[in-house]
Specification:
alpha/beta; about 350 residues; 2 domains; 11 helices; globular
């Protein structure tokens, strides 16, 4: 008999995080009375890491000799998955109570092609990672307006709904959707594989659902930092996506824009990455000068960028923008330099 859900966990040099992910899934299956299986995939991390992974007690193991990227790892795991409902997951994710059931409920609707959870960045679960991306042409040109994006982001975080693109750390879908639109394109070596796949889901007339009742913690940025080939792989994927989606001229325009020095917004310098509480406001946090997309936290209390988040950031400017909850209007913008 097939399980109710198959969770494909894709690992590359993240055995410690993978152990936490598997443990959280086991706890979720038990607490939510879900018959689930874990398919653990490793993408060429080496024998030492594989020995650790082999002791985690996954229901199925797929250990690849080479790093086929997240797309290749996901596809390899999907080959072994037995359920008609599947979740593809980064290894650096911990599932919080109720997350699995909420994702399964979301993709039970025939109009929904894929669903993603609300991701927290910090251990205290205050700082929320982006609910949607700015991966369309104008977004990649840096032309997205902050206030409308902020309003849409808050709506998704609070109420959920249809998104243009979903964050790719955790994606739930159905086998029939994969059969209809295909699996992940392995030409994308790092990032953009979920964006391109989600484009196909939307083109098939299916919705991308952001489900805030499903909650996870995503240790964003840690595993990628361990791979010295990350930036090259990201660039290959970005260029491929841009040319396929927007053609050679569109790609050239985006590359030209990307090569220009980043225009910094007017921002007051901070000695510490912290802002005071303010009623009716949120703080947006981003290393991108446009602050689109952003992580966010309500300012119902004083905010300081948590140490566990700081550890995952590269040296450089970090922007903090206080904005009004009601309409997304920016109130103050600050910048802190991580050395």
């Amino acid at each position: 008999m097939s399980p109710r859900v198959s969770v494909v966990v894709v690992n590359h040099r993240s055995a410690g995080e993978a152990a936490g992910c598997v443990a959280s899934l086991r706890e979720a299956f038990a607490a939510e009375a879900v018959d689930g299986e874990i398919v653990l995939v490793d993408c060429g991390s080496g024998e030492e890491e594989r020995r650790v992974l082999a002791g985690l007690g996954a229901d199925a193991e797929v250990f690849l000799d080479e790093n086929r990227g997240y797309s290749g790892g996901a596809n390899a795991g999907l080959e072994r998955a037995r359920s008609s409902a599947v979740v593809v997951s980064n290894a650096d994710v911990a599932y919080l109570p109720g997350a699995v059931t909420a994702l399964l409920d979301a993709v039970a609707s025939p109009r929904v092609g894929a669903a993603a959870p609300l991701c927290f960045w910090d251990a205290e679960r205050r700082l929320r990672l982006p609910a949607d991306s700015a991966s369309d042409f104008f977004g990649q040109m840096g032309l997205s307006r902050f206030a409308p994006f902020a309003r849409r982001t808050l709506r998704l975080w609070e109420d959920g709904g249809d998104a243009k693109h979903l964050p790719g750390a955790v994606l739930a879908t159905r086998r029939e959707v994969l059969d209809r639109v295909g699996r992940f394109d392995e030409a994308f070596l790092f990032e953009y594989e979920e964006t391109e796949w989600e484009d196909r889901v939307r083109e098939a007339g299916l919705a991308l659902r952001f489900e805030p009742r499903a909650r996870v913690r995503h240790l964003f940025g840690r595993s990628a930092a361990r791979n010295p080939d990350t930036e090259r792989r990201r660039q290959v994927s970005r260029n491929l996506y841009r040319e396929r989606r927007y053609g050679r001229i569109g790609r050239a325009l985006l590359e030209r824009q990307s090569s220009r020095p980043e225009r910094r917004p007017p921002a007051a310098p901070l000695s510490q990455p912290a802002v005071a509480a303010r009623a009716g406001a949120w703080v947006a946090v981003s290393t991108n000068a446009s602050l689109v997309p952003f992580a966010g936290c309500p300012l119902d209390a004083d905010f300081r960028l948590p140490d566990d988040v700081l550890a995952s950031l590269r040296p450089g400017p970090v922007y903090l923008r206080v904005f009004r909850t009601a309409d997304g209007r920016p109130l103050e913008t600050f910048v802190w330099e991580k050395s």
